Please model this.
Amino acid sequence: MADKFSFDIVSEVDMMEVENAVNQAQKELANRFDFKGSKSSIDLNKNDKKITLVADDDFKMKALKDILEGRFAKRGVSIKSLNYKAEEKAFEGYIRQVAEIISGLPSDKAKELVKIIKDSKLKVQTQIDGAKVKVVSPKKDDLQQVIAYLKQVPFSLPLQFTNYR
Model:
């Protein structure tokens, strides 16, 4: 029997599912009556991991976000992985907004996660390892308590628990 058990906490996004969600959102946009004759669009840049939304006005921008977020939810991609930048004026009075797709655990968020685990007073050790946080304990029950605790805590990124050993 192993003397230490561990698991990794990561924040990853399946880009194939993101691409499928954006394609479905584009199809819905083309079929919606309230967008007929509009220059509104949703475009994905896979290399930069950015989604660009262009709308005629604030009302249509809100509708575009609703369409996109609804498709993300249906594809099982967390909406927390979208980081909306500020709206900006585009050509001919249109509004443009860029949404970055956050994949990976930035070091500041990893440190915040370690602090949350330490504040839980559970007897586990944490270690930041690149884009993931490793949690180690001699008892499996402690690890399961950490997972249950983190699922209850509101965190700004979607978390997945992998390599449970």
User: Anything to note?
Assistant: Strands lie at 5-10, 41-45, 50-55, 82-84, 88-89, 95-101, 125-129, 132-137, 160-162. The chain has a mean pLDDT of 88. The chain has four helices and nine strands.
